[in-house]
Amino acid sequence: MKILLTGSSGYVAQKLLPSLLDGGHQVICCVRDLKKVNFKQYQNSNLSIIEVDFLDKNSLSKIPKDIDVAYYLIHSMSTKKGNFENMEEVCATNFKNHINQTSAKQVIYLSGIVNSGKLSKHLSSRKNVELILSNSKFALTTLKAGIIIGSGSSSFEIMRDLVYKLPFMIAPKWLKTKCQPISINNVIEFLIGVIGQNETYNNSYDIGGPDILTYKEMLLGLADASNLKIRIVLLPIMTPRLSSYWLYFITSTSFPLAKNLVNSMKIEVICKENNLAKMLDIKLIDYKTALKLALSNQ
Questions:
Q1: Span 155-174, average pLDDT
Q2: Which residues pair with 3 in a beta bridge?
Q3: How far apart (Å, rounded) are the C-alpha atoms in residues 18 and 219?
Q4: 173-185 pLDDT per residue, tens
Q5: What pLDDT does 77 receive?
C-alpha cells in the first residue's frame, strides 16, 4: 500500500516507520523542515520525504493523490508558541480537507484515552481532533492510548528522570491517579494491524496493557527494574502549577509539556473494554516486561 505518515519526526512515527517498510509498504513521510531530520539510516526505495506544514494548507499540494492510507500522528502539546489547541484544530482541518481530495480509504489516528467528563486541555484537544477527522470521505480508525512505555517516549523519559535523580521523592498527590500503560511494541502492532481492516473503519478503540497502576506504582516498578531504591512521599497541597515546575526543574521536559502532562495526569486513563487485541491476535505486554524492553531499547 501507499501510506502517508505525518508527524514523521516524532517518537511513535520513528518506531512505526521501520515496520511499515519491512511490510513492503511505500511510505511518504511528511516533515516540517527537511534540514532538521535525518532518514539516511533507511536505504529503501519505498521511502520518500516531503516537506509539509499542516498549519499552511498551501504546502499540502506536495502530498500525492494516489495514497491508500494516512496516519495522523500530529500533536502540538509541547509547543512554546501560540495556543496548541488552536494549532491542532487548524492542522486537523487542513489535513482532513486535503486527504478528502486523495484516494485514501482510511486514516489511522493515534489519540489519548478519554473517559472523564472533565478533560484536560490536552485530552479535550485530542477529542476535538477526532471529531474534525470524522464524517469524511475516508474511514477513520482511532486508537486511544495512555502512557506509552518505550525508550524515547516523553512520558517514559520523564519517569526515568524522576527515578534516576530522586532517591527520595516528595511528590504531588496525582501520583495516586490510576492509568493503563502500554508498551510501544504493542502500540506499533495495533497501528500496523488495523491497516485495511474493514471492521475498524469509523470506529474508536482504547488500547492499553493488561495492568492498571497508579503513577506511584509505575515509578516504583521502574526503580525496581533499574535496580534502584526510591522512597515516595505524596504531598497533597502541591498545586498543578507547582507540580509543573517540579517536573520542569527535575526532568528534561519543557515547561509547556510539563504543564499539559500534569493536567492530564490528574485524570484516570483506563481502557474501555473492546475486542481489538483479540481481533488482531495481539498479545498484550505486561508493565514489568514493557519496562525491560524499554530499558534495553527494544
A1: 79
A2: 27, 69
A3: 30
A4: 778 889 999 999 9
A5: 47
Say what the pLDDT of residue 100 is.
Answer: 96
Q: Phi, psi (5° rounding) for residue 48?
A: -135, 150
Contact 136, 100 (CB under 8 A): yes
Distance of alpha carbon 15 from alpha carbon 44, whole angstroms: 16
Distances in whole angstroms, Cα of residue 97 to Cα of each of 14, 18, 65, 92, 136: 25, 28, 13, 9, 9
Residue 111 class from Cβ within 10 Å (0-12 exposed, 13-18 middle, 19+ buried)? buried
* Terminal CA-CA length for the chain: 26
Contact 250, 163 (CB under 8 A): no
Q: Is 158 helix (H, G, I), strand (E, B) or coil?
A: helix
Helix (H) or strand (E) holding 47: strand 47-51
Q: Find cell 502539546 and name the residue.
A: 77
Q: Is the pLDDT of residue 80 over 90?
A: no
pLDDT score for 79: 46
Task: Cell numbers for 147, please give them.
Answer: 502512557
> Are the beta carbons of 195 and 258 closer than 8 angstroms?
no
The pLDDT value recorded for residue 279 is 97
pLDDT in tens, 86-141: 888 999 999 999 999 999 999 999 998 876 666 666 677 778 899 999 989 999 99
